[in-house]
Amino acid sequence: MKKLLAVAVATAISAPAMADLTIGGSADYLLTSTDGSVADSLETNIDINASATAEDGMFVKAYLQIEANQADQNASQSFDIDDNKLTVGYDVASVTVGNFVTSSAFVAGNDDYMAGAHGFKANASERASDVALNFAAGAVSGQIGTNLDEGGADATVAYIKADLGMATVAANYEDEDGVSEGYGASVSAKLADATVTLSYAENTQTNVGTSNINVAYGAFDVNFSDDEATDSHFYGSYKTALPVSGASLTVGAGATDDVTKVGANVVFKF
After folding, report:
1. pTM, whole model, 2 decimals?
2. What's the alpha-carbon Rg for the chain, to the nearest Å?
3. pLDDT at residue number 218
4. With the CA atoms of 105, 161, 147 and 126 taken in that order, what torsion angle do they form, in degrees rounded to the nearest 10?
5. What is the pLDDT along the chain (270 residues), one digit of tens a residue?
6. β-bridge pairing 20-34 and 37-53
7. 251 vs 263: CA distance, rounded Å
8. How far is CA 245 from each of CA 24, 27, 267, rounded to the nearest angstrom?
9. How far apart are the C-alpha atoms of 128 and 115, rounded to whole Å?
10. Which of 225, 222, 235 is nearest to 194 (CA)?
């Protein structure tokens, strides 16, 4: 019996660690009034994370996000997969495959309360890829992505970020089969208890650009966005925790030259 117990213990110790699996999500309800016109939406996400790491540091990570979105009571509900990706490698270099959004340098802040949309299209942000190389070396990290599927447009993206101590700078570039091309850049610095980020992105084909100033101070998020194709935007929000664990309430407002928007947002993370 002692020998059997010894073998069992030794087997348990030498066996590879099981993968870590986390299942969670969020429910996000947004109610806004734009010049008296009321709109609401409910988005529920289910997030599934799985990962395993070897003794030499090599890891495998899988992520899936399932999204259900109801724009309003008269609209049909959408149900789709937001992100579906697998990452293999080390902290210094890894490869991600699947369907996912690549890293972006442009920082728009909490734009739920923008009174209008950005005018540019190729804004060097939220470009989807199906394969990307991720790298990190000290204070520098980045990503290079493209599409291997010949059935779609050939898209190439590149992103790099550097922490310089006093400030963090980032830049990225995108090119989608010659149809849309753009770039973005940002610099972020800590000023007292506030983080100030200056961003710029431009569509190089139409020369339409947008600059944004984001100030994050505790629960406050304030932005000024100047778009060459549309009006300038002021918008901001304040977030506070609710008594229920995982729940929060955000209130905000925004304005352009002739449009105002106010709203409230309840988020429950589980």
Report:
1. 0.83
2. 22
3. 95
4. -20
5. 334 333 333 433 344 556 899 999 999 999 999 999 999 999 999 999 999 999 999 999 999 999 998 876 666 677 888 889 999 999 999 999 998 888 889 998 999 999 977 655 544 444 556 899 999 999 999 999 988 766 656 778 899 999 999 999 999 988 877 667 888 999 999 998 999 999 998 877 767 788 999 999 999 999 999 887 777 889 999 999 999 999 999 999 999 988 999 999 999 999
6. antiparallel
7. 6
8. 14, 13, 11
9. 26
10. 222
Amino acid 95 reads V
DSSP secondary structure of the chain: -HHHHHHHHHHHHHSPPPPEEEEEEEEEEEEEEETTEEEEEEEEEEEEEEEEE-TTS-EEEEEEEEEEEE-STTSPPEEEEEEEEEEEE-SSEEEEEEEEEPP-S-----GGG-SS--S-S--SSS-EEEEEEEEEETTEEEEEEE---TTS--EEEEEEEEE-SSEEEEEEEEEETTTEEEEEEEEEEEETTEEEEEEEEEETTTTEEEEEEEEEETTEEEEEEEESSS-EEEEEEEEEE-SSTTEEEEEEEEE-SS-EEEEEEEEEE-
Write the single-letter amino acid at 121. K
The token duo for 39 is 């709109």
**Amino acid in the structure at residue 31:** L
Task: For residue 258, give Cα distances in angstroms to 34, 143, 232, 252.
Answer: 11, 40, 10, 18
* Phi and psi at residue 244, to the nearest 5°: -80, 135
